[in-house]
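Problem 3 from the worked examples.
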Amino acid sequence: MNQRLLFGLLLGALLGVVCIIGAQIRSDFTQETSYLFAFWYNRVILGLLIGVLPIISLKKAILRGALLGAIVSLAFYSSTEFNDFIGFIAGIAYGVIIETALFYVKKLSNNRLNT
């Protein structure tokens, strides 16, 4: 498994935990386990998708992250009968975060190899 894919999966899983915490707080801790798992898994899929894509410039990566975040999050958002708009917007932000982080992880690893 390549480094970009591994970090994408890890970031997706970590951000999924953040989503679970946010969803629980927004619902006064009444969300079902299946809902929370689906929320987490949606973020893992986002990290996987971004992780398998090639590296591009930072500006394009940010736009691609937002677009992929919207596309992947729309699947979950629509399954909630469009009731979790905050979760949908968070998915867009998380796509940008994952793309940006993976861009800089690659840049740092390239700099380390060149020194």
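Problem 4, a separate protein:
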Amino acid sequence: MIKRTLFFSNKASITTQLEQLVIKTENRETTIPIEDVGFVVIEHPEIYISITTLTKLSDNNVAVIFCDAKHMPCSMLLNLNNHYIQQELFSQQIKATEPLKKQLWQQVVKTKINYQAEHLKKLGKPYNVLQHFESKVLSGDTSNMEGVAASYYWKNIFDFNFKRERYGDYPNLYFPEIG
């Protein structure tokens, strides 16, 4: 069974009861079996999550990822009881051949560009050029199609002149919850 990823971008309270996650927001309360969860991403700064909940998530090999004020992952909680499995995965990743790493990166970049195209398509914006860029991704993305596609995507996603900059003005660093 594929495990679920839970992403929390709004204020919430996360506790447990009867091996279920109990998620309470201002609008509703819901439960999810802990055994169905693979990842929990905590993005909002006002998430309450109990120590008991974190322990039960860890016991069920659920990775909990915490994000910083820029919505970027900054730390991760992993189960130490099964660390040998994680160590084996790290070891296998390190031992991977360079061609395999480059092929995997090619797949990642192609998927990213595909999702960008799908997003523009859903917004009714021109997207066909992204499909072309996706078809041109080489092993290891040596032609930097990821950068070319990202430039096109960011120029076309908004209805105003926008340039993607790490420390640029709105909407680059816009935090709807704060500003």
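Solution to problem 4. Helices lie at 51-59, 83-95, 98-122, 128-135, 145-157. Residues 174-179 have pLDDT under 50 and may be disordered.
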